[in-house]
UniProtKB/TrEMBL annotation:
Protein name: Outer membrane protein beta-barrel domain-containing protein
Key words, A-Z: Signal
Signal peptide: 1-19
Length: 242
């Protein structure tokens, strides 16, 4: 309930205070995950037709700042982007009984290439390298009793990929399906370095607002600062364009 109240307040703010500003986009998301609600608010600004920036914050207090540069060549859409995110400080107990305080810092460098196949179909590949650098107050040898925790609190690199197709049968309706596969690079305590999932989505292309719903099944991170889960969840949200 608190997440939806938070999103409602942001909706009122975005539709009134930001309505007079040009080149602003607002993204509101809400999802139910492991019995709890997770909300995300994002604001983007287009400095030019090619260069844009964004800031996201969720109810886990994870903040992400990003910038992208895009261009269109014939029927191809090309985009490069960078993102930096950091979460709130968290506390847990290490295997030696000491209190462990840590904070996650995540860096992304990515490239997206999309092509218009027909008037109604757009396909794209989104690929990126993600570097996770946790900051903590004690040395990792103190966590030797828990290999998974020790790995989650060590530096990691992951190669993330998405293959997707969007179909727009009507001007006001878009359908999408994507396959996501992420590979852990380097040593890790898991049996398999591959994590994959499938998304299906539907969105309504209305004036000034695009409501959508997305269902995900497989192994994934519901948010960058969260651990990988093998489950499913449904996300609903809105994109506001001014």
């Amino acid at each position: 309930m608190k997440s939806f109240l938070f999103i409602f307040i942001c909706t009122v703010f975005s539709s009134n205070a930001l309505a007079a500003l040009e080149d602003i986009s607002v993204n509101l998301q809400a999802s139910q995950y492991d019995g709890e609600y997770l909300g995300v608010v994002g604001i983007g600004y287009d400095f030019t037709e090619q260069f844009s920036t964004s800031v996201d914050i969720d109810t886990d207090k994870y903040i992400e700042i990003g910038a992208s540069y895009s261009t269109i060549i014939d029927t191809w859409y090309l985009e490069t982007y960078v993102r930096y995110g950091f979460g709130d400080e968290l506390t847990t107990e290490a295997s030696d009984g000491n209190e462990l305080v840590y904070q996650m810092h995540i860096y992304d460098l990515g490239f997206l290439a999309g092509k218009v196949l027909t008037n109604n179909v757009f396909a794209y590949l989104d690929t990126s390298l993600q570097y996770r650098a946790p900051h903590h107050n004690i040395a990792l040898p103190a966590l030797v009793g828990d290999n998974t925790l020790a790995y989650e609190l060590s530096q990691q690199t992951e190669w993330n990929n998405t293959l997707a197709v969007d179909y727009t049968p009507l001007d006001w309706l878009s359908l999408g399906v994507s396959y996501n596969f992420d590979l852990l690079l380097g040593d890790h305590p898991y049996e398999d370095s591959l994590r994959d999932s499938v998304d299906v989505s539907v969105s309504l292309n209305l004036p000034y607002v695009t409501p959508y719903a997305r269902y995900t099944k497989g192994e994934y991170r519901v948010r960058p600062g969260r651990p990988i889960q093998d489950s499913s969840y449904t996300e609903v949200g809105f994109y506001f364009n001014f």
